[in-house]
Specification:
The structure is a homodimer. The first copy, chain A, is α/β, with parallel strands linked by helices. The first copy, chain A, folds into 3 domains: 49 residues, Orthogonal Bundle (434 Repressor (Amino-terminal Domain)), CATH 1.10.260; 132 residues, 3-Layer(aba) Sandwich (Rossmann fold), CATH 3.40.50.2300; 162 residues, Response regulator (Rossmann fold). Chain A is built from 13 helices and 13 strands. In chain A, helix 5 packs across helix 12, helix 8 runs parallel beside helix 9 and helix 10 crosses helix 11. At the A-B interface, helix 4, helix 5, strand 2, helix 6 and helix 11 of A face helix 4, helix 5, strand 2, helix 6 and helix 7 of B. The first copy, chain A, binds a DNA duplex through helix 2 and helix 4. Chains A, B: This is LacI family DNA-binding transcriptional regulator.
DNA sequence: CTGTTAGCGCCTTCAT
DNA sequence: ATGAAGGCGCTAACAG
């Protein structure tokens, strides 16, 4: 005895008018008598009429839903981006269909098909660490379904993207280590095919270069973004004939793990070895020692990406420009690189309260400048 | 020139057979010639046919999507639950439509309508801190759309729920504080109308009672789940004629904030004041001091809730039983309550690696036992 | 085993 | 300003 939902026909019958008029009244069509509209609206409200998005989607080819595909849901990064994106979508009446890939390429492909099958009006995508083929996303492009990559973007596709200033941020992080007197700076990186890793690695290299330190290949180690590898890798770094005095990790999870390992090995952080992360994940701020890292405006990233995506939908696919929006990361210096000062002012480390200052975006009209990095 | 997608009609035309046969072949209908099926499947594959979920949904009244409505996306808790739920859904071919409410009742109501409009086959819900009216969720119940609450459940509705052992876990947390010699134990709680807060408060009271400590109303303070209130509230607690020597916070975010405030006020944790949280959020493990807390199997909770929900859909609404699944929380003793021991074994504090042991579920056939608590 | 038909709920010409 | 009719892509009777 499931109380089925109210339809336009129901309203039409009760009011003894045609369903097309009801439809018009409900869709702000100007060609309808104000009185009629009032009656329809009143009844619709009273009956708690909910338009059936399925049939609307089927009819209009617009579902008012946006797909969001993320590589994982373990770190706080993607959920926060999603929250920002969702908020921006809701403001314009869009719903959000989400899917996580568990860093698995096959799952990503499957998820892309789900998005297609559900006729999303657009997709926000951040790829898995395994992804090197983009055919499944090209399909969207070909069909005129707008797609915006964020954070872990795809280098090959000329579509809009939202990223953090990976290169500059890395550069700043490493420059900070150099400024604090470090000479042997290791880099725990991720899969080499990922653009994001390349940019961060390049930033690392450039900073070393700029400050007269030689780039040593043996100090750059691929963690495959897997924390379980870190223990062994940190040990390896310490066993070098010229042991490292600093570690720049490609994200906070890796950095935190490195700190744990170092502490376990009775190394002092930052006195013996400084550690810098990337991302300012939840928890990094009140770790022991608090982690120096790059704060990324993740919620902002979600909003920006969604706004960009929604703005595309108003225009012709032909006019879509592969804009890359770059959000500035900000170096947050904490105790994992600098010994605590005597006086530290009180700052809430809870993300809901944390204030990010001076986050301005820049914009490039195409990918070339980015690739030049 | 958007390359529109392939439909059943397209396949039927190319194969010169009827669309119903194509449909049958695609839906594993037994009444179809194996050869025909092969041809259809082959062509569908070649053409990268994607069934249109909108029309299927419209026709069958089943969309294969589950709505998940969460109160917030700031802490790591809900994203992790969602990840678990999504995984369980994907295994059975279900997609997930998500919506966050930013702890706002009106948004929750709006989100419930979105779910209705999108014809989800069921919903997983955790309510906001403001929610005291459940009419919008009753609608689902009335329409025969299965609904399962998790974590922040609704006491009034007789529907399936998945929760942690709030009462017992609180009891254990407070008992642990007592065992470590604390006499004046404060409780930072949340909005009193929330069932989850009531249960945790009851657990706190019971533990005090059991160990001969008197319940002092002035030591129970409502934070409204807002970390910005904590500073003032902790100060208040310290200014009591008989100052507190321990704080049991209703979640980790509040607890972490309390620790920060205490440190700022030059109180030693745990020597002067012990702090216990609830939830074992990401980051609590490597905080300074590492936070003693209740580890909740959040990913497991998502999986359990989704499995429960999907299992309902196979049965008649009339036979749905308001089962409440209780997942055990586990007290994780860390440095915020006990001074660090000389030897600490190495444990990865990264959630992807963290091993949760002995998490067994219990099950009640109705809500009464729970309410009795 | 296959084809025909009808219709899910809605929007959108085309009439009036 | 309103009504009638057609169809989005698909499935589920009903015939054969």
């Amino acid at each position: 005895m499931k109380g089925s939902s109210i339809t336009i026909v129901d309203i039409a019958k009760k009011l003894n008018i045609s369903k097309s008029t009801v439809s018009r009244a409900l869709t702000n069509n100007p060609n309808v008598n104000p009185e009629t509209r009032q009656k329809v609206l009143a009844l619709a409200d009273q009956l708690a009429y909910q338009p059936n998005m399925l049939s609307i989607g089927l009819r209009t080819n617009k579902t008012k839903t946006i797909g969001i595909v993320v590589p994982e849901l373990i770190s706080s990064f993607y959920p926060t981006v999603m929250a920002g994106a969702q908020e921006a979508a809701a403001q314009r009446g869009f719903s959000v269909l989400t899917a996580s890939c568990n860093e698995n390429y096959a799952t990503e492909v499957a998820n892309s098909k789900v998005m297609l099958a559900n006729c999303v009006d657009g997709v926000l995508v951040s790829i898995t660490k395994e992804t090197i083929n983009y055919d499944h996303w090209m399909t969207f492009y070909r069909r005129g379904i707008p797609i915006v990559f964020f954070d872990r973007v795809c280098g090959e596709m000329m579509v809009p993207k939202v990223v953090v200033s990976d290169y500059e941020s890395s550069f700043n992080a490493v420059a900070h280590l150099v400024a604090s007197g470090r000479k042997r700076i290791a880099h725990l990186t991720g899969p080499a095919q990922m653009l994001i890793m390349q940019k961060r690695l390049n930033g690392y290299r450039a900073a070393l270069n700029k400050h007269g330190l030689t780039y040593d290949e043996s100090l750059v180690i691929d963690t495959d973004l897997n924390v379980t590898n870190v223990k062994m890798q940190v040990k390896y770094l310490l066993e070098q004939k010229q042991p490292v005095d600093a570690i720049f990790a490609v994200n906070d999870a890796i950095a935190m793990e490195a700190v744990q390992v170092l502490k376990k090995m009775n190394k002092r952080v930052p006195e013996d070895i400084a550690v810098v992360g990337f991302g300012d994940h939840y928890g990094s701020g009140f770790a022991d020692p608090a982690l120096t890292t790059i704060a990324v405006p993740n919620r902002e990233m979600g909003k920006t990406a969604m706004s960009l995506l929604l703005s595309l939908m108003d225009k012709e696919p032909a006019s879509w420009k592969p804009i890359t929006r770059i959000l500035d990361g900000e170096l947050v210096v904490r105790q994992s690189t600098i010994k605590p000062e005597p006086m530290v002012s009180y700052v809430s480390s809870y993300p809901g309260v944390f204030q990010m200052n001076s986050l301005h975006n820049r914009e490039f009209s195409d990918d070339k400048k980015l690739k030049a990095i």
